Amino acid sequence: MPTVLPLETTADPLEHVRSAVSRRYLLLATTLTALGGLIIMGLPGGPIELRIGLGLTYMALAAAAFWASRRSPRQLRSLIVPLLFSVALAIVLGCWFGGVGVNTAGMGLLALLVCLASAAAGLRVALYMGSAVALGIVCLAVAEHIGLIAGASIVPTLPLLRRAVVPLLTVMGGLIGGVMLSSIVERALQDAARRERRFVELVGIAADAYWECDAQLCITDLWCRESAESDAFRPMPVAHVVPWELPGLHMADAARVAYRDAMMSHRPFRNVQLTWHLPDGSIRHDLVSGTPRYTPGGVFRGYWGVARYIDEEVRAREAMAASEARYRNLFTSMPAGLVLHRQGDIIDANPAAAALFGFDSVDAMRGHSVFEVYGGDTHALGRSRLEALNRMPPGTVLPLAQFLINALDGRRLTVHATTALIEADDGPAMLSFYLDDSERVSAIEAMQRSQALLSQVIAMSPDGITLTDLATGRYVMVSDSFERITGHRVADVLGRTSTELGIWRHAADRARLVALLDQHGTVENLPFEFVRRDGSTVRLQISGARFDQGGHTYLVLNARDTSASERTRLEYQRLLNSAQIGIAVTRERRFLIANPHFEQMFGWPAGELIGQPGRVVWPSDEAYAQVGAQVGPALARGERVEFEATACRHDGSTLRARMRATAIDPEHPADGGTIWTAEDVTRQREAEAALARARDEAEAANRAKSAFLANTSHEIRTPLNGLVGLARLAREPGVEPVRLQQYLAQISASAETLAAIISGILDLSKIEAGRLEIESAPFELIALLQSLEQAYRSLADSRGLSFEVSIDPRLPPWVRGDALRVRQILANFLHNALKFTHRGGVRLVARQLPDDRTRFDVHDTGVGIDAPTQARLFKPFTQADESITRRFGGTGLGLSICRELAELMGGEVGVSSTPGQGSCFHAELTLPPVAPPEHASRRGGLDADPLRGAHVLMVEDNAVNMMIGVAMLEQWGLEVGQACDGQQALDAVDRAVRAGRPFDAVLMDVQMPGMSGYEATRHLRERYPSSRLPIIALTAAALTSERERAEAVGMNAFLTKPIDPQRLRSTLQRLLSDDEAG
Prior knowledge:
By secondary structure, the protein is an alpha+beta fold. The chain has 33 helices and 35 strands. It folds into 7 domains: 13-187, no CATH class; 206-306, Beta-Lactamase (2-Layer Sandwich); 334-438, PAS domain (Beta-Lactamase), CATH 3.30.450.20; 470-562, Beta-Lactamase; 566-686, PAS domain (Beta-Lactamase), CATH 3.30.450.20; 774-881 and 890-926, Histidine kinase-like ATPase, C-terminal domain (Heat Shock Protein 90, 2-Layer Sandwich); 951-1073, Rossmann fold, CATH 3.40.50.2300.
């Protein structure tokens, strides 16, 4: 049964007090009765058996009283009355058998019993008790009067009547006092009960549960409201545990610790939120408050408190949070631009607004003004609208207005915007909505231009065009050309029939035209004679068609003058047919009209596309359905659409087409059909993609070139620093000869390194400029391979690597090609192989292939190269990675130059490699075999010494170059003459001829002060032919124009500086050998 909340008392406070009084009375009765029994047994006089009997009776009553005091309140209420009467009877009997009569102290105890009976058992029991006690007193008095008992008087002089009246009055006083005490206690308890009920009602209003815990903070009582509609509470079973460890309680660790600390430190707490996971799977949320309880002496007794169910509040908060999240998601995901601002200063925006205004992100918009992107007069319009909105109440929304937006990314947009005045968290603000209407405005403008163009075409057409309502036969539209052809004014024709105008010369012609139209729906190029307004006749060619639009059937006729107007019409027709745009008309998803360009674009024979379903120009049913879903709704609304998609030709191939479509009758789109225009943008898109790829490649090349320039600067400065430093050291006095030779050797090595770098750069520049020329001359391939073996074997030995050259026996000894460039390619491969191989060895393999091709493979056991690096290895300015540049140096030009040289020689290069297992670089070159030149057998090969004893002239204005060139030539055994400019060269040649020791060849610097090498060569060629006096050009300029100029003035060969000794030697051998052969 539900009950009221029990706070600190029971259900009946009066019963509780009576039980407490009864319990204390019984304890008092126990003491007094036991004491009385002892006194009776110890008093002298009277029979001992009587005293013992009375004493044991008193002791039994004391024991019964003590036993009753330990019973429950309900049992106590049933025992208190018999015990009271038993004690009273025991006192009376004690006075009787003790012979003391009525004048004893025991009479006072009877008055006390009546008083206690009134307080403990109520007025009725007290009256019964008082009557019984009074009867006992009267009986004692009568017994004493008649002498049954002797009686004993405290005041012997008092008469018996007065001694009997005094106890009766005492009992009456006890009864009155008990009634007064009971009434006072009852009124006090009733007041307390009223206050308690008010308090309980207040608790029931403010709380849904009441709880108590003891001094050890363990829950002792829990009373919960039965239901939300009920004020009744019922007790709940509780586990004797501390609140924060109750089963089903879920709290965050920090909150649980704070909750525990508050209770353990005996502090009051309010509104602690608890979450319960109930056994049925549901979740309940409570707000708990509690305050500590203390005794009047200040001893902590525990806590009591209340709890309030807040499930609805939690659900409301969660719903509000979810609603806020939904609105935030809606705000963020809405395709329209939303901007929250104050007087234009942006507070927040959604991504659509950021994209519309051209900002990178929403964060980038904050702090800017919306007016920063307003263009034209719309800036002032926006300001005036905001000023007007400030004077309006919150919630006001401005009407839509059109604005021009200059987006930060350069786009010019037309938008429609409206602004609402709202209340934000931090005060009034404005929320603006922006709808990008650029496409629609452009579509309208394009449609207006198209309509204007169509009207212009009709107005300019030499043919008379009429539109007739077939239901009435009356003209609803005629062109200006109709007036020119027939003489009838447009105003006179509209609303009238052709019969009323009398323009048919033969009525039968009109009937035939109507019959053909009824049968076929269209007619083409039918000749008829018409009557002009002035009575003259004109022969016209009539084409016409019936069509439905807007619920009416119309007949459109085109009347063409077959004379000059016919020629004009044909010209216009050809102009339209030659337009580089496809035009078609569809109705009910089938083609009605398609111009030649449309048919050609989609690969259909002339006329065969008419009547075909629209599906035939799309690659699949899915693509056709997708286009329909994309543009169908807009066309159904009469809007113009433009899109780009992949279309399909008649042969199944695809193209990228830009399509535009609009309804013939925007007011009734479903009835009139659709006009389509198509442009093939396949090449344009491919060109854009190619341009993007080219741009990316160019950017990558620029980055590579920048890295190349930085690396090359380092590569040039390193040997240059060595040259300058070593030269300075070599000039120091007292340098030992051995040390001097070391300096000179290192100077030579640094110079060769620098020359190789510069040569590579010059070769690349000539290759990129298309000015590198490949020689085609016989050379001894076997000897070239043997010289490479000799050159690189020592380098391999110094590094502890094996080196092997394998030559195919089928390889021809002599081939035609550029020996220098072949050597350059193979030397680069071998140099790289030795540089990147630390263990194992290097092997050069030369093999003969079909079609006069030769394959060279350079194998190594080095670190190997991964696939991504192989893909870029032969590109200019690149190396495998930056660590190679730091560790081994180099400019990254070698392999790219090898690729270019191989391609110039009609071949190719490549690489195959596995990381950790080594690499194989190969070159396939076209080297056709040739017979050995005649001079080759005479001089015994390339390494014979045909130059020894030859007489040559060195013409050079630079003293250092002169010294180097003369020393090199003399080392080869040549006799060298010297000249510093062109004039000295002419004089030296003439002196040698007169002396009978003419020069066998001239090495001519082309850039010299005074007379240049070109001018000196022209003078020499006037006297000496090229076969008699070979002239070799020496120049630092490597341009093709310089070579062409040298050949034009009669020079036999062209060599660039710095001079390659091997190339100079082979050139001299060839020219001198040719001279000897001649």
